[in-house]
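Predicting structure from sequence has reshaped protein science. With that in mind, we have picked out one protein's residues alongside their backbone shape tokens:
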Amino acid sequence: MTGTPVLVLLQHHWRQHRLPLIPMAAGLVLFEFLMTRLAPAPNEIGWMATMIASLPPQLVALAGGQSTFGTPGGVLSIGYEHPFFFLMLSAWVVRVPSAAIAGEIGRGTMDLVASRPLTRWHQVVAAALFTAAGAAVLIGAAWISSTVGLMIRPLGVTGFTLLPIAGMAWLLFVTWALVSLLISTSQREAGPAIAWTSGILATSFVLEYLSRLWKPIASLRPLSLFAYYQPHGIIGSGVAGRDLIRLTLVAIAAGLVALALFRRRDL
């Protein structure tokens, strides 16, 4: 191995995960560009509001509520909280951390990696950095696609309007990446790590959605990380400082616990 330890590990992760990154980015590019085609022009908002009023309230709630459809920007924000958008990012933040630690242990290649002049700190940091960089590529591709779409079809909204949403999406999934890394450091194979992380992530998404519809569990909403990422709210009033702080604190805590756990465990 040559170069700095973290750089060498980043190159290792790149060789493992670069191919899936391409179709995932392409899917997000096509999806967000399509959203700029489907979003109503300012003079079409009234027509869309009438149509939305006829939809089941559960479906409207999934899109962020009736107010989301009141402006072109609100409709565009749906593309950044749509299940397809979440699915692509979730697949990435589950795949890479699970393969980086638990996957290497399960394949028996961790002993080879550990025999090099690397510390466990290097391995955790490299996995976190690569996952965060990949999430930035995916979200950046989606945002560029939206920006280009809005240049071709002006809707009174620019790419800069959507930039805070893209930034918060990145923070949300970096937080999930570190949670995924924490789980990976506690497992000996990639399969269980993927299953645990996917289950927790899916449960968090469903909890946030159901807590908006069912008042008896509304108090549980803060337990979901998705509760701190509301694109339609960002369009209307900007990024909420408390959401930014909460996601950052969870990310830091997950990263520190992952590092402490991996440093103490047997390989």
